[in-house]
Amino acid sequence: MKRLSRGRVGEGSFHAVTWGSLIAMVGFLVLIVVSMITFVNWRIFLSTFPSQEVLFAIRLSFLTATVATAIAVLFAIPTSYAISKAEFWGKSAVDTLLDIPIVVSPVALGSALLIFFNTSPGIFIESHFVRFVFEVPGIVLAQFVVVSALAIRLMKSTFDSIGSRYEMVARTLGCSKWQAFLRVTLPMAKNGLIAASIIAWARAVGEYGATITLAGATEMKTETLPIAIYLSIASADVDRAVAVVLILIAMSATSLVALRKLTGKGFTL
Asked: How far is CA 27 from CA 12, 19, 238, in A?
């Protein structure tokens, strides 16, 4: 009886801690969102949303995030597959190196890019190919650097969960390595690919630190939604800043809802 009583007490305390933590975190986030909704002047919000500057920021954010995500996923698929399936000397070091953009501050990444474009190779690229510093391509590059590691990590976890025996069976049936990958492995990784694309896109839309460091904060030129928030705060236009924050939250929330609808569940590392 004593053991049973202690077991019930232990189970009760476990549920209290887990559910209490969940309720506290959800309540905290809801409180933040509700505070912004109640703070915003809806007359200003309704006049801000269709303004030329905000529409420009929305279009630029959507365009640059889409291009950066497409490039990131294009590189993430073969890179993550190699890290997941291949064995080679220095694999642990390479895997760690690919994770650096996740743990390093975006401002530091932007600073590193800015320094690179002040070296001989960077100056050559800007002079003969594409200008990145304080230009729109710099936004795409900054977003790509930030989200590429995230896409690689998500895709690697997906490929890790797919056994190599499926490809082996396909090879015994006459498929080439490319055919086995495209017809067997990649379709099995569909949910992971969708998740990586949507999460990387949402992260790219919200990217600020590396973007402002490399591309600057020029109104109606390199003004993405996060930079629009920064410019509004800098000009003491708090109401407009909150309105843009709500637009950014709505875009991010929509992408996460789309992720759950398309994959049928959430996706975690």
From this structure: 22, 12, 24
Helices (H), the chain: 2-39, 42-48, 52-85, 91-103, 106-116, 120-128, 136-160, 165-172, 177-180, 186-188, 190-205, 209-215, 225-234, 238-263
The amino acid at residue 186 is L
Provide the terminal-to-terminal Cα distance of the chain, rounded to the nearest Å: 42
Residue 252, class by beta-carbon neighbours within 10 Å (0-12 exposed, 13-18 middle, 19+ buried)? Answer: middle
Q: What does the DSSP 8-state code read for residue 183?
A: I
* Radius of gyration over every alpha carbon of the chain, rounded to an integer in angstroms: 23
Residue 190 carries which DSSP code? H
Q: Is the model more confident about 143 or about 264?
A: 143
The pLDDT value given to residue 269: 46
pTM for this predicted structure: 0.83
What superfamily would CATH give domain 41-263? MetI-like (1.10.3720.10)
| Tokens at 257, concatenated | 């809802």
Q: What is the pLDDT of residues 158-179, one digit of tens each?
A: 888 887 788 788 878 877 888 8
Which of 50-54, 98-102, 126-130, 145-149 has the least mean pLDDT?
50-54
